[in-house]
Amino acid sequence: MIFGRSERGKPPVEPVTLKILVAGGFGVGKTTLVGAVSEIRPLRTEELLTEAGRPIDDTSGVEGKHTTTVAMDFGRITLREDLVLYLFGTPGQERFWFMWDELSEGALGAVVLADTRRLEDSFAAVDYFERRSIPFLVGVNCFEDAPRYPIEDVRQALDLDDGVPLLMCDARDRESVKEALIGVVQHAMAYAAGQRQTVTT
To answer: Which InterPro entries does the entry link to (predicted)?
Structure first.
């Protein structure tokens, strides 16, 4: 770009921006996922865990975690010149859930990260997006020391509708995260098309 115009003399393209949330329980890998794929240095609002928070922040299964997101994580991916994806990682602890309504405003869809060691921590996020009819995908973050289960067993344990995509992913791996994000966009497009069809029939 030169002085606000492209080198070929064409006016700059105003990109379409899409917003995707990354949600899930405490310590499930939301901050890691945003950082793995963002083209900019992610905005993070992490604070150190303190002794005062130990009675509220259950770190069983994630004993090595020393920080927590207190507002959001933010990252950006340019898919094409005219298409930009904004990622917003939600805070995991219950006391910060009041922020979810603000963050979900205008969201195309969401990735709900799950950890097989603490599947119950994903129930709140699944319930949140189901109640608000926001299309979402569940990504099981494959931690090295986490037990592996057949994907249909995980679907049953989370009580997911058949239409909700469920996949295994690695929040540290850029390609794995991209696959999950593409899945969300495709699911959201199919969901929107289904809603339009329902209205016209």
So the answer is: Gliding_Motility_GTPase, Gpn, P-loop_NTPase
